[in-house]
From TrEMBL:
This is N-acetyltransferase domain-containing protein. SUPFAM superfamilies: Acyl-CoA N-acyltransferases (Nat) (SSF55729). Coiled coil: none annotated. It comes from the Bacteria. Residues 1-28 are annotated as: Disordered. Residues 30-193 form the N-acetyltransferase domain. It comes from Methylorubrum suomiense.
Length: 317
């Protein structure tokens, strides 16, 4: 037997004692959580990787617009982040807003700008599921990629826009007067709607107020380039406007002529596009089915064409 001094200890193994087991490697940990203010640099880094045609200023300006909107406690401000061993590897912007309408007060969430690093793409469904847990919230996607349309339907989303109309408003009925947004025209609107219109004008939208006698309503347009033809001529575009909001009770067909006159004389713009479920028979123009569809899931889906406070106006074209 080996003699040892009192200051040393060594293990003694018999021939039948097993060798010590190698330590098990730690499993990689993946988690999804709410985006915090301190995460914004990492979030914008991911978004720029996923959408390389968008500048850093594009993301920062849009998030700043959204940050200014009031939200109740407990509602995510920006959306959700996916981490792998502490590294940010995925992001889903979830732009919440409070809706007050005939159905009461409820939450609507614009799911926007999803990106997961390619090596972790298989984990992306965790991010989606985490973001859509609350069945009391209405979730909308206003810019779904074509390859995700079938997936949205499989997840219970309903189509709220099946195509777009290219409207020629000068050919519509001429009634009333359309004027640019000003303190005087905003005074014709209910206070909550006047705030909505003023917000969107500050984002860069073109705002009009139509009035006829004691009846008044608002229309908001986003500047955009319109594709002339699909496929090989998709690069060919012309300047235009998209209708992103109009007052819920506004008879759009009744105010078209006045709106068209204003757009042509003040903006040199003879047309605009609007979302629709089907061709609008009382609006002169052409309907393009299947163009820019939009989806919603939840108890209070928006009407076709209501894009207020969505990414389309917060971030711009």
């Amino acid at each position: 037997m080996l003699a040892l001094s009192e200051s040393h200890e060594v293990p003694v193994f018999s021939g039948s004692d097993p060798a010590p087991a190698a330590p098990k490697p730690e499993r990689a940990k993946t988690r999804c959580r709410i985006i915090e203010e301190s995460d914004l640099d990492a979030v914008i880094g991911l978004l720029r990787a996923g959408f390389p045609d968008r500048s850093e200023a594009y993301w920062r300006n849009g998030l700043a617009h959204h940050r200014a909107q009031p939200l109740p406690d407990g509602v995510p401000r920006y959306g959700y982040l996916m981490e792998r061993d502490g590294e940010a590897v995925g992001v889903l912007l979830a732009l919440y807003r409070v809706i007050e309408d005939e159905a009461g007060t409820h939450l609507r969430c614009n799911l926007s700008s999803w990106y997961v690093k390619p090596e972790y793409r298989s984990l992306g469904t965790l991010l989606d599921g985490f973001a859509m847990r609350d069945r009391s919230v209405t979730y909308v996607n206003v810019s779904p990629a074509p390859q995700t349309w079938a997936m949205h339907k499989a997840r219970g989303f309903k189509t709220i826009c099946a195509g777009q109309m290219l409207a020629l408003p000068l050919l519509g009925r001429h009634r009333g007067r359309a004027r640019a947004v000003s303190p005087a025209t905003l005074a014709l609107l209910p206070p909550a709607e006047a705030r909505l219109v003023a917000d969107h004008v500050s984002y860069g939208c073109l705002g009009l107020v139509w009035s006829h006698g004691s009846v008044a309503g608002a229309l908001l347009f986003q500047r955009r380039a319109i594709k002339v033809l699909p496929g090989r001529f998709a690069w060919l575009r012309f300047p235009g406007l998209q209708l992103v909001y109009h007052s819920p009770n506004l008879d759009l067909a009744a105010c078209l002529g006045a709106v068209g006159r204003h757009l042509l004389l003040r903006r040199a713009m003879p047309w605009f596009v609007l979302d629709a479920l089907e061709r609008c028979a009382d609006i002169p123009g052409r309907y393009f089915p299947g163009r820019a569809p939009k989806f919603a899931r939840g108890p209070n889906p928006p009407v076709a064409g209501d894009l207020s406070y969505t990414e389309i106006v917060l971030f711009g074209a």
